[in-house]
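name: query_chain
kind: protein
chains: 1
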Amino acid sequence: MGRSLSYDNRYRACWPIPGGSRGSKEYLENLRAILYTISSNQFTIDELAQPVAAQFGAKVSWVRESLRICIIYTSLAKLEGGVVRLTEDAREYLRTGDETILAKCFCENIWGFKEILHLLKERPIETSELFTKLKQLGANWEYDHQVRHRIEWLKSFGLVESMHRKYCLTQKGLLFVNTLEPFDIAVDLHRDSIKAIDSIVGDEDKFLKQIKKSSKPNSGYLGGISKRTESFMKDKVFKQQNHALLSEYIVVENMETEFNTHLNKVIGEKFEEVVQFGKNFNSSFLESYLVKNFGEKLFFDPLLTLIQQYAIADVDIINEGGYKVDKTGFNLALFGDPGTGKTFATKDFILGDENKDVPAHGLPGRNRYCGGMTPARFIQIGKAYEGRKFVFIVPELREWFTHSPGMVEPLKLAMEHGVLTKETFKEVIEPYRFTSFFSVNYNAMIKSSGDYKVSMRDPNFNAIEDRMLCRLHVLTKERYMAIAETQTKKWRGEIKYELADKIRDHLTLIHAVETGNPKVKGILERKPILLTTKFIDMISEARQRILDEVDYEDVLKFSPRLETRVLQVAAALSLVNYFRYQYSDVIPLNDHAMNTALRFYFEEIFIRLRGIR
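structure:
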């Protein structure tokens, strides 16, 4: 397991991972992201430190030393001709997600990890006592920072947890420590024989403290960069927006890691179970699950946000002649009165909310939450998502138009998967094609007559609505009662999300298949959605019924794009049936999907006719 040093030669320094100051959870997430960055690039340690430092607003000099200690000294990576390359241990960890691989590397290469685990095997211990015992064993530390860093790492590996201000082994930790070489906890009286180890890294505590004091988030970045690098950053490659873009690449790698880890678990541990669930699961079953929890009045919102998660695979829709007519991916907007459940459907239900005891139903690692993000920032970071399929969840779209006039055109281009660019006196953003989707909320002013007016100042905002699947929320007495009843059900413990994990696994596997993920290549085949003549006839009949009710002189407030959205709803709902057509080359639109899509069609036209511009 990696390059194992003897007891007397293990490195004495241990530092936190960049960005890990917020807690042990970030240690593992950020480590994974950095390892993925190493695997897909040929960076020197200095080149690797620059985007990582930009991401976390830290000094490059501090980040460089942190990477050296946390990744190279632990034998997760090595330097070959000055280039940082992953070791087999790191590659195995990325393949399997097994944290014990990391734990063994740290125990074998950094002094104090194995010792802490053996000490905690005896009984729970406070930080101060651990510090004292490690000093008795030979540590030459002035402060307890080194103990705390090791504890955070061990917590991130799932081996240690805190309880009543003391630290103790988890069940996983207890099993792991029994695999380690036995260790004599008796105090080593020969401290002088191991003092030389500290010269490897110097007085790391003082250096760490000094750098952290001089570093503030998002400031002083150039202070730790050489003049040569600073000059290079003035070149076209490092325009002003690249700080944001480099940081976002790390965010993307983090999310890719989350998705791949979940997919590996589905394929390796649950594959047959997920396939069997898929054979019994369909869009009607999904609707029943949502109606049971949220009622007839409220279920449609989470249904739309969830089928959008299926839809972003952007599966081809073909006609009976075999020609492609469209794709499944669509943008979604829930708008209307505050307090009508918009945020729950778009954010909490998809991402999950531990505080509300709501499990995630959406794709792991495929949703970019944009709360607090400015439109300028979005345009800067969008290139990191080029060629990828994500959902950008924007909790209050109105803020984008308040802060940045003129957002209609770039947002139109983004929603159409067009090419975005920006040129101003201060920055130049090179052209890129945005290939992801939006799920947005915004408020509207509802009149007593039921008419509405959106709160956007831009008179061209209707062009944005025309490119989204929109659903209006009016806080009527009926909707108020439905929300109140759902809340009461929750208080009574009657809302059960028993299918959340199964749906998420099902969704993950279908997304992987339909986006051509190499992990499922040769196991399951991509299938297009078949547009049937029956659906064409149904939509034609519905269109005629609506137009018959509209006066000849009336100006229509909806466009033919609406019928495309209806087709995409039906196609996304039909995609849920993937495993029911395991031996077919296509997935046909089914009756339930078509009827649900037509319901949306009539509701949407009714809403658009009442909109005030």
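note: The two ends are 67 Å apart (CA to CA).
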